[in-house]
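Please complete every field before forwarding. Incomplete forms are returned to the sender.

SECTION A: IDENTIFIERS
Entry label: holo-260
Bound molecule: magnesium ion
Molecule representation: SMILES string

SECTION B: INPUTS
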Amino acid sequence: MQTPKNWNTNEIKLDVQRFKMDLENAVKRELIKKNEPAPKTDVRIVNPIDSEDLNYIVSLIENNEIWNLELLGKGACGSVYSYKNYAIKILFNQEKDAEIMEKLQSSKYVPTLYAVINDNSFIMSKVDGLTVKKYDMLRKKDEIENFIHPAFKDMFNEALDDFVTLGFQPYDLHTDNVMIDRSTGTPVVIDVGFFTELTDYTKMKIKEDGINSVDIYSIGGYCSAKGWIEGTVEKYTLLRNLQLESEKILNKYDLSKAII
Ligand SMILES: Nc1ncnc2c1ncn2[C@@H]1O[C@H](COP(=O)(O)OP(=O)(O)OP(=O)(O)O)[C@@H](O)[C@H]1O
Ligand SMILES: [Mg+2]
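SECTION C: PREDICTED COMPLEX
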């Protein structure tokens, strides 16, 4: 069967997800009518979170009202909504995002994971910033100032090192999965759903011989990021360095006395 040209697969997935939630809620309501206990919402707290905020978010999910919140973005695997300083990700299927993000919590380059709700939603910290893709787009149109930290690339590599040290092969790091924090200019990897666990052999090798014993540049994560990290974003960090350099030169010479 041919798919009509204007059908967006993400929209279709979102509709299916909504339909599933509506159905689940209808079943819950029927069970309540029959005096049978409705399936309990499973909430697991990972990092301290205000209980009022948590209860409110859980009630939105239970009542199928999460859609009313502002949509931060959506991808192939789920939709992310905004509430206060939280980002709430609702996955289309049971994915491993939360489980992986929990294991990466000691890295400063991932959002804080607050709570996991059932097996398809979780609450994390909201990044105040832009995805690399959006940043790049706005910079090209000169609509925003450069706010990337001059050491962005080193930090990004440090993030990759963190992930590998914590036992994961980073993957799927395209420009919508990495954000740039507005106030610090540093990278935050917001989507770790496709990271895969390193083999026991690789983990052992890292433990014994250190991170450099693994060629992280040859694995998927770096490859998918390589294009933009070596290209566009780097261009802006260089530009920033160049600006700083020119400022230094200007400061060094007293140009006020120059005869033009
Ligand atoms: N913690 C966050 N803070 C702010 N915005 C976020 C956060 N997490 C996700 N987003 C926004 O939501 C979008 C979609 O999120 P995410 O990449 O996790 O979804 P996905 O469906 O897993 O994506 P993919 O298509 O890469 O699998 C991101 O590109 C980003 O714009
Ligand atoms: Mg994504």
